[in-house]
Amino acid sequence: MRKYGIEIAIGLVPIIIAFLIFIGQNVVPMLMLGVIGFAVVYAARGRGKLTAMTGQKQRTDVKSTPFTFEQIGGQERAKQELVEALDFLVHQDKIAKLGIRPLKGILLAGPPGTGKTLLAKAAAQYTDSIYLAASGSEFVEMYVGVGAGRVRDLFKEARTKANKAKKSSAVIFIDEIEVIGGKRDGGQQREYDQTLNQLLTEMDGIHANESPRILLIAATNRKEMLDSALLRPGRFDRHIGVELPDKKGRLHILNIHANNKPIEDGVDLDRIARESFGFSGAQLESVMNEAAIYAMRESREQIAENHLSMAIDKVMMGEKTDREATKEERERIALHELGHAIMAELVRPGSVSQVALSPRGQALGYVRHNPQQDQYLYTKDFLNGQIMIALGGAAAEEMFYGDRSTGSRGDFEQAMNIVKTLVESGLTDLGIIDASMMTKDVWALTNRTILDELMLQTKGMLESRRDVFTKSLETLLREETLSGDEFRTLFATNSAA
Questions:
Q1: CA 381 → CA 295, 366, 377, 385, distances in Å?
Q2: Catalytic residue among 178, 337, 345, 397
Q3: Active site residue 337
Q4: Which label site among 57, 168, 234, 255 has the fewest CB atoms less than 10 Å from its CB?
Q5: What is the pLDDT of residues 116-140, one digit of tens each?
């Protein structure tokens, strides 16, 4: 009906204009106003209050291949919790006998790139549901009421599409939920508050006996910012942590992304999983992709282990740069990186994975560390060791040149962050203390005391290994890159201790 109304209006306009001209009316001002009005409406299309109308254009359906939980690696616990929650949709008769209330919302919380969106897609496939995705930023506008209207339209669209496809359920996925679900400050007139209130109302309107059933899945990496009204039972009933994968999970993810790539026989993906500590699933996918690109650059038909190692460096540090350092700078950089590597070998034997002199990203050189096992709890001794590794570069420069360079800036920032962790964890002489109540002078004194003491220890330990520096320097300058095994051979051969 609306379509025919537009066609009738378009047909009547020329007739009305001809009639006005016939009776002697000046139609030029009216035509000018009409053109201006059309321009304003066209410019505002897709923005402002117009998008809150129920007649707005629906989002386009995207045809994609089915995505299952088996295609997601490194999140076994999260998948298990999510599947259990989804079974409330799949086995509705069974849960009705036990009197279980179906879940209305599931919150996925975790760092970026860990697979929250993929879990939502797999959830829709698992439950044979219509899948609609939106971002929190889509609901934010400067006009009051627009976001609330978009929330209403999203839930209405989910029900409409589910009925049209003859599905019994629909999954709505909202990424960056903290944009519209942030804590309220008491005012009720802000656009953010009205949008959140509408979302709460829509979730309260989800009933167990309605058809189609709506399940809201939201994702955030800042759960602490969310409003308590959104997190309570009856809205987001289940909170699932989607954390960075451990070594077993990283190996699983690497194997998944290696399925469609030609990998050389003998490539040790287990070693790559160890060296990629702290990587998210997205970063691991990028590692496999970059390794394939390196193989293509060398016109190789298969991906070798050195391609994967270079890919880890690129994802972690960035691409190699064309910056050329002078001979003096190269020697200083080499001694700086050897300081880090030797200190790491003294504090954490076997942890050095690579020592590189080539500039990459913002770094002129770097040492890549390979922890023997994933670790999530740290003692005071462990953190002090990490500070000494960070200070090793500056200590080496002082040993051989008598001063430091600006290359230690990032190392000092890392060391001070670890000192902050020590203080906040009650692992310093200050004891258990609220760090937010410490003045700048106390912070400065604490930093200086801890770092000066550890710098003295670092210099003493490196001074006893001076021969390792002098004998390894030539090799590093010539080769530019030393593997962990090559470095440990030089360390063992030239170590006086």
A1: 42, 24, 12, 6
A2: 337
A3: yes
A4: 57
A5: 989 988 988 888 888 888 888 777 7
